[in-house]
Amino acid sequence: GKYTLLENGTLLIRETNIHDRGNYMCKAQNHIGDSTVVVFVTIVGHSPRITKRPPRNIHTVAGLAIQLHCMAFGIPAPEITWELPNHSLFLTGIKGQLSGSKILHPQRTLIIHNPNSSNSGIYKCVAKNQFGRDFTVTYVQVISIGNKV
């Protein structure tokens, strides 16, 4: 479970979050008497801050792969999600994800292989943890060969 009381009286709390903060009371008693101590527990963390972001605008030619890098710092480590122009979501994972011509690497890089004009639009990287969120947006314009800029 989340809470474990060890034989030495230590309370072990696993996977802490901001809801675990507050006063904890420890009461010990034996045949001689009892003693109580109250400890205030603070959970320290930081809301995410994006530390590596893609350019605000990317103009590319159809067929040339696009890499969008997004990294963030936070405590605990933030979850990174990419929102695509069609509003579908890509969540970073250990093994990465594959969807059509798009690949999301565990390193939080969104790669669009062989893009075409339908891949044009706004790409949003969102970093979030229990303390907050940060985001950045990139406009990608894929120009088909033969189209004028």
UniProtKB/TrEMBL annotation:
The keyword Cytoplasm does not apply. One of its GO terms (cellular component) is neuron projection. Transmembrane segments: none annotated. SUPFAM superfamilies: Immunoglobulin (SSF48726). Pfam families: I-set (PF07679), Ig_3 (PF13927). Residues 48-138 form the Ig-like domain. InterPro entries: Ig-like_dom, Ig-like_dom_sf, Ig-like_fold, Ig_I-set, Ig_sub, Ig_sub2, Neural/epithelial_adhesion. It comes from the Eukaryota. Coiled coil: none annotated. Keywords: Disulfide bond, Immunoglobulin domain, Repeat, Signal. The keyword Ribonucleoprotein does not apply. PANTHER family: CTX-RELATED TYPE I TRANSMEMBRANE PROTEIN, IG-LIKE DOMAIN-CONTAINING PROTEIN. This is Ig-like domain-containing protein.
